[in-house]
């Protein structure tokens, strides 16, 4: 009888171990399936970002300000049930343009300085497009008033939220933001920042850059 009881005990132990093993496998499989995917969600419709899409910018300092644009060179917006479920925009940093200066009146010099293609010792003052030719925005959510996503500039990623109007039709998606600001030093753009350097007096450039997003995507 003792042998039978012991035998049953061994069998019960084996079953318990097997159940725990299966549970661990199940937990592992569950954890593996929770990895975030950037692929187009099943059932969504993809829209391609149009070449006319731009980001407008304004930079300022005590002596004045400059404004311009940078092109959104590529990207997709995925829509399901008339709502954006995911999206990604690539900014061509080589396309930085200054709009408030005329050719021959400092326009080329400022564009070269911003891109880091002018003086060799100034290539990293701003965006250093040779090393960082693109920036990226990855859409995360839209609550009806604000768009939230991850902005990557110079390989530094920060979450940003901005007020915007989003329109979705069968043929296109339009994202038009209101003016908002980002702090350039959050992305390693430290040149002439009084929050980084304390000896600039009035020869500083404001940390905040004003941006306006104008993105259109079509099927």
Textual characterization of the structure:
Pfam families: YceI. It comes from Capnocytophaga canis. This is YceI family protein. There is one protein chain. The protein is α+β, with helices and mostly antiparallel strands. The chain has a single domain (45-218), classed as Lipid/polyisoprenoid-binding, YceI-like (Lipocalin, Beta Barrel). 19% of the residues lie in helices and 44% in strands. It has two helices and ten strands, in the order αββββαββββββ. The protein has helices at residues 2-33, 107-115, and strands at residues 45-49, 54-61, 64-80, 83-98, 134-142, 146-153, 156-168, 172-177, 180-183, 208-218. Strands 1, 2, 3, 4, 5, 6, 7, 8, 9 and 10 form a ten-stranded antiparallel sheet that branches. Strand 7 and strand 8 (172-177) form a beta hairpin. 20% of the residues are buried. The model is unreliable at 1-37 (pLDDT under 50).
């Amino acid at each position: 009888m003792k042998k039978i009881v012991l035998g049953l005990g061994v069998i019960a132990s084996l079953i318990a171990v097997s159940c725990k093993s299966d549970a661990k496998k199940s937990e592992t499989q569950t954890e593996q399936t929770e990895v975030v995917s950037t692929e187009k969600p099943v059932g969504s419709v993809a829209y391609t970002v149009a070449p006319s899409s731009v980001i407008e910018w304004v930079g300022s300092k005590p002596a004045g300000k400059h404004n311009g644009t940078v092109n959104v060179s590529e990207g997709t917006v995925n829509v399901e049930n008339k709502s954006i479920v995911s999206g990604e925009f690539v900014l061509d940093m080589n396309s930085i343009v200054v709009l408030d200066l005329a050719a021959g009146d400092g326009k080329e010099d400022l564009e070269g300085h911003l891109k880091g293609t002018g003086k060799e010792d100034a290539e990293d003052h701003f965006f250093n497009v040779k090393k960082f030719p693109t920036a990226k925005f990855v859409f995360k959510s839209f609550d009806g008033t604000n768009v939230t996503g991850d902005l990557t500039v110079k390989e530094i990623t920060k979450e940003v939220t901005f007020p915007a109007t989003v329109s979705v039709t069968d043929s296109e998606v339009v994202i038009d933001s209101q003016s908002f600001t980002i702090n350039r030093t959050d992305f390693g753009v430290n040149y002439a920042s009084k929050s980084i350097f304390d000896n600039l007096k009035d020869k500083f450039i404001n940390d905040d850059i004003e941006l306006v997003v104008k993105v259109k995507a079509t099927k």
